[in-house]
Amino acid sequence: MSQHRTLLALLLAGALCSVAQAQDTPPANARLQRQEIAHGDPSRWYVADASASAQRKNLRKEITAALQEAIIGCKKAGAGERTQCLRDARATYQHDMANLEQIREENNSLQ
Asked: Where would I find the beta strands (DSSP E) of 28-99?
């Protein structure tokens, strides 16, 4: 019975370590984040993009940034999961880019 508890404790500790490691922010990034938070939100966040082309440009930028973040997350995954994770990330990117106009219209309907 104690072997089972020991094994369970080791598995739990390993899982907690991997979760903690996944949430690590490099010190340089953490410093920049604290500086940005201290300055508050940029005013441009509260000014709507006036033209459809500006909205499309912003959406392309956001979709590309989401892909980059997903790729970083996929690289942290195990080798067995990484390939599928990258496929899913690219598929989401392609889907969002193909439906850019629909996303833009939905965003406008929310305002």
From this structure: none
Grouping H, G, I as helix, E, B as strand and the rest as coil, residue 47 is coil
Residue range(s) defining the domain that contains residue 29: 1-47
Please say whether the beta carbons of 87 and 53 come within 8 A: no
Which residues make Cβ contacts (< 8 Å) with residue 73, sequence separation at least 6? 85
List all residues 6 or more positions away from 64 whose beta carbon is below 8 Å from its beta carbon: 93
In tens, the pLDDT along 18-39 reads 444 456 778 888 888 898 888 8
Q: Are 65 and 16 in contact (CB under 8 A)?
A: no
pTM of the model: 0.59
Domain stop point among 47, 62, 85: 47
Cβ contacts of 60 within 8 Å, gap of 6 or more: 97, 100
Same domain (yes/no): 57, 102:
yes
The closest of 107, 72, 111, 106 to 89, measured between CA atoms, is: 72
